[in-house]
């Protein structure tokens, strides 16, 4: 389909194509330098001593023997760190009271890893061991061990309401009540976190594997009491972010502290175990859901109480309630979230944050109520989904104060259903299938903000017509180093090869919060769009006398500046720039128009066909269809890759990836890939995932694209649960659906 | 004196102070990283094979034995270089025909210097030796060896005329005719040139000890047929530029070629000898001057023919004629410059370019004619100098088409004369002094463009009120990394500690031609001024509703944004930025208003008292007073340091620093400090130089400052020659004034 370009009546030339990633060759040939690959002359290696107790007070810490080791250049303990919380963690870089097993207790920088490891063993720590609590509901009891002086609750419960929930439930023809549970999840990428810090006087440069260089500047400037121009953070390539790298953690500050103390560059490269334990996790969530429907198939009331396990510390995040408020029209709604601290590692952003957990609860209970009522769960959803023009609750609050725009959930459902063959599902759950292998089809919906809210960029057009675009967030694999240049090329009317991206460096680029929450496409993209138009304004001013036309009657296309609609009245861009005789610099910033907040959203419908072996409990994913309304795709291949990768990540949650904790010791039992069980190619063949791109050019910049990196991860657990039910008649309300849990459920049902 | 700030009625707070250089600590503690200090993993070391002949054709070059040496990773010869001239050199990176002794013939990159040196010896070159010529007047003869197919003249002669020179001379009451000569001079800094190149795919990063990163981007992009966004040049700290590092040379391209061929980073660090031979030199100049005066002490006619020895290749530069046209009102003028190629190393920019040589000729002949007429040479000059309101010839051409503005040559002469005690000079040259030691006082004037013409900068104001200023030229020791932040601090009304400079990196900053020709203060300074005001405009827009005043009624001062003239109606800048909630990005570009070209100039008067030992020929500089109209000094200490350093460099030319060439072999006899004889502390005690800063706030931005880095180097030779004459009665017309030449002149005069 020919999308409209910024030039009326002409198709897009670059945006919407399948341009290969501009940095693909560097990435696949190993030339791309990740933080861990970097070396600086005189660089030291850091190692971290960690607590063996899930909850304890450090009575005494003696580093004298470690300091005496030849080659040890710096040691820091809780005595040496600024007494300022790290982000909203409620903790310092190192704490006198440790709150999870594996929490950092001391850092050492030495000439090599062996020396640092040796010195680490020579630090003597005397702990006063304290009682600990791992379960969030236990932790809510007044008798539970308390992690903080003001108790274990992290702030007030988050409550969203609409209508009158109790009246809504009373008015319903049928009410069902269910409980769902998602365990603590892993949130990291293939590359464990790494930092390299160096100081020149009071000027700090930190290379970090981070999604959010700008936020780390803020955090370190505050921590070291420096103005922001004294801190530079550079993220080169990073090997997956998924949220773990979107917030600052203790490792950046620890590395910088050690480097300052040692007066030499220091690199801290986390091991896999450290990455899993001391970054952040996806929070465990328990959901108590009540749903009420009317006989006419309308959803009438939805009440969900969430208890989320924030672990020892946490990053303050937007909370749960989004899926409940945004997916369906429901007159009576209440969601309530309790965030509870326990003695497991701290939580934080993880692809989708709480949305995958919430989607599991909401999309399971919708399926359950449809079954109870004898409705086709797809028909039930189609009846109640929000559509373009329906009321929208800005910012996720209960109050509805806008109208949903450009929302193609219906097309996502229809396209997805057609692709999976919805009509093939078992009319009755479990059906009449004989033998051990049974099949079923399930679906789940989700949606999310299209991102944006903030973004900033600079575009520089050289005198030869080549361009460079700067922004401070990182390309975390989502391909922004390709899509942002595509926006530049499209608007400036030049080939993509004439554009280079410089991202992830706070030195030159304006502040951005990072590559988070679907933000880059709309946030940075809008800023890039503006910056390009700022450049064009200057270029058109110089071109105007050359073309004997007013500047506002010009357009840029095919390397030419021309009078709008008159390709014969044109002059090469290069000639205009030669006459301009200086670099053109444009800047742009996206600032969210609050009256349009959440008016445009990104819906998706996922469908899955599973096969269950009733003898072994093994689940096979036969097909997974993920249909997403992505607005105008900036790059079709990249959008498809996001859908495929995110879907697999959602399936991982369903199929077994989990952080297990030992109830007796409080320790994590799966701090490695073997026990954590992220899916391999043998578990989920990526070819089973079919990305369906529902093009639905939105109204927002750039070019009506919607940010969508988080969304594909949301529906996996719910879709698989619903398909399992359709295959076996068994309703699983606890994630993951391990062979053990399936066999146990099968044995119960016999 | 209280200069006006940008806020009417209030004194400047930062500009004009003696703020210490912001990078002083890094520089003096050795923390500052020069290009030669940089290391990259896997880096190779490059070495260059050089021609033993001043003129030869390479018949055969065999590198097979060198290639076989273990550890050799790349070799390039003339066969491997792009067939494009390097800059305006008229030569390629490596040439099949070499034109000076020491010209590069091949480059080798190897794992270490020893390996590269060993391999270098194994390259076999068969030369066809050609006849050579060293003297420019000889080279002008048709029978001379020809360096280029179109002969030895580098372009047409440059001719400037005003009035009718022959009529002017005929009308004069007295005409004298004299010949002056300045030899080929050294132009380097303490740090020999260094380059470090690395390629990522087709993206080249080059660290170079250069004044002009932007120009090198242009040159390398052209050479490698790349768009400019594929080339990044970074100059970190450089150890003196003085022109040698303002133009591209073969070493940047050679390093990049070797790195591309070896697929590894390559560093090429020139030795002192290579730096002296293969960068560029100050051109030898022969001057044939005729001057005519009237009895009423007016200068009536001035005719100078210059023959400059451009060496084997050259950088195209503004030519000679500036001092003749700009210093004095003279109705009949002609200057004519012939640029001639010879078989000595190529020439290029060197502090003051041709102005020191021309000043020597013009200010010697003015002194001579004054003596002939029995006039006080100062009175003669004061009678004829150009003053504010006098006609000015834009661009140095003969046609006078503007009026000189803000020109304080008279104050420079008066202040300088008072300081040196002009009345103490010998009334008659040589005077009646007894004994071997005689003293004398001389003077010389000069002037130059205040620089500018082009400049570009970006200023970023962080959300905490700290700022970063970016420009692409290098701080070559002139202190721009301090003065540009001072402009930012003054305009934004913040302390200097809240500003950081990022210069010398083409990645972010817009194109600038470099730190050349007095350019930075006005060129970059004006751009920085504009960029700051672009920031303020955005800041004022956000502040306006906070202060309930229109944006254009606001001003920035003392970290506050306030209603103009109402300090009680103010709000902290930080609060405004918090509300703005995004980085403020401003950009500025200086584009020369052609109608104002050369309307403002930077005049100076130098005075020197010398002592000559008539027995040994030794000259002692007793006092050296250098009075400069610098407009509004941005930083008084920096301005004084420029005057002192430049004056000593001028004295070096007078006292013996020189490149000698062997007439038989064509080789340079002084490619080292011992034979080159740059002055040490024992030759010129820096304390004898007295900088007199004549503040004379100009009309141009920033703050009426004038660029003046070149000027102090101009008058040394002429002032010393005139003082020598006053001391001894001997007129020396050949530079330098070595002990041998003085003893010879003394023996002739007896």
Description of the molecule:
The first copy, chain A, has 750 residues and is α+β, with helices and mostly antiparallel strands. Chain A has 3 domains: 24-32 and 453-591, Aldehyde Oxidoreductase, domain 4, CATH 3.30.365.10; 35-130 and 197-238 and 245-271, Aldehyde Oxidoreductase, domain 3 (Alpha-Beta Complex); 284-451 and 597-749, 2-Layer Sandwich (Aldehyde Oxidoreductase, domain 4). Chain A is 27% helix and 25% strand. Chain A contains 19 helices and 28 strands. In chain A, the strands form 7 sheets. A 7-stranded mixed sheet of chain A has the order 3-5-1-12-9-10-11, with helices on both faces. In chain A, strands 7-15-14-13-8 form a 5-stranded mixed sheet, sandwiched between helices. In chain A, helix 13 runs parallel beside helix 14. The model of chain A is unreliable at 1-5 (pLDDT under 50). The A-B interface holds A 25-26, 31, 39, 41, 200-201, 203, 221, 227-230, 454, 456, 458, 460, 462-468, 470, 497-500, 502, 507-508, 510-511, 581-583, 585, 587, 589, 591 and B 25-26, 31, 39, 41, 200-201, 203, 221, 227-230, 454, 456, 458, 460, 462-468, 470, 497-500, 502, 507-508, 510-511, 581-583, 585, 587, 589, 591.
- How many angstroms separate the termini of chain A? 53 Å
Label the CATH architecture of the largest domain in chain A: 2-Layer Sandwich
Overall average residue pLDDT of chain A: 94
How many β-strand runs of chain A? 28
Strand arrangement within the widest β-sheet of chain A reads 3-5-1-12-9-10-11
Could you tell me which chain pair has the largest interface and how many residues each side has? A-B, 41 and 41 residues
Count of the domains of chain A: 3
Parts with pLDDT < 50 across at least 5 consecutive residues of chain A? 1-5
> Approximately what portion of the residues of chain A adopt beta-strand conformation?
25-35%
Q: Helix fraction of chain A? A: 25-40%
